[in-house]
């Protein structure tokens, strides 16, 4: 559910889960990707020249600092690991381009209008590279994916922390806890202006939340039910009998790519 705070908080909008609802309930088979928008593509090309207000930069640094302090001093699931995963995810996202455009011997394609080239990249990447919110959410998910991890498997965590296990129905316990810890920090009053800068609309907040949940829980590669969901989704995305609309297949494939990027990086 969406909790719109009191009027004296202006237009601040926060996500508050319904009673009894956990992150696992929010996992979707696919996330809807936007259609190609030339205006968004043009804005993305000019994004490097964008100057982020100093107040926002400082606020984001403060958020990252708090996230870093929330990581435990584990041999592996620590903030250094999170940084490695974040850098890997960012690198893989930067390499998600169409070979027909990137190939050195195909300069003629680069002479076409920027809009035509952007549209081709959009289609090849299932809309991921022309969705700034998706790209940011994947990188953000990498940063927070192991927050408060206790350095043990979910099976062992359930034995040692039965109350936490019960809260998350004994499924993807560490991953769901990481999302909740990171989200609670982001939703705190001190980051009101940061939220307003990131989320222009309520729908953007919900889209970001959905991406974050799906991508972080994708790092649990041992849960059998989630694993089966991914296998079934793969069959629908790449072995369809022609009954599914192209837009649905595109969304399925985009979700697979986004989840595989963090899975490949989380090693």
Helix content: 55-70%
Mean pLDDT value: 88
The biggest beta sheet is recorded as: 2 strands, antiparallel
Output the helix-strand order. Answer: EEHHHHHHHHHHHHHHH
DSSP helix count?
Answer: 15
What amount of the residues lies in strands? under 5%
Uncertain segments: 1-8
The total count of strands amounts to 2
Give the N-to-C terminal Cα separation: 34 Å
Shape: globular
The class by helix and strand makeup works out as mainly alpha
Q: How do the strands line up in the largest sheet?
A: 1-2
Radius of gyration over C-alpha positions, nearest whole angstrom: 19 Å
Describe the structure concisely:
This protein has helices at residues 23-26, 38-45, 54-70, 79-94, 99-102, 107-110, 114-124, 132-144, 154-160, 162-167, 173-186, 192-198, 202-217, 224-238, 246-265; strands at residues 2-4, 13-15. It has 267 residues and is mainly α.
Describe the protein's topology.
Layout (H helix, E strand, L loop, with lengths): L1 E3 L8 E3 L7 H4 L11 H8 L8 H17 L8 H16 L4 H4 L4 H4 L3 H11 L7 H13 L9 H7 L1 H6 L5 H14 L5 H7 L3 H16 L6 H15 L7 H20 L2
Antiparallel strand pairs: 1-2
Helix pairs in contact: 3-11, 4-8, 4-15, 8-13, 11-13, 14-15
Please supply descriptive tags for the structure shown above.
267 residues; mainly alpha; two-stranded antiparallel sheet
Description:
The chain is mainly α and 267 residues long. The chain is 61% helix and 2% strand. It is built from 15 helices and two strands. α4 crosses α15. The two termini are 34 Å apart. The relative contact order is 0.17. The N terminus is likely disordered.
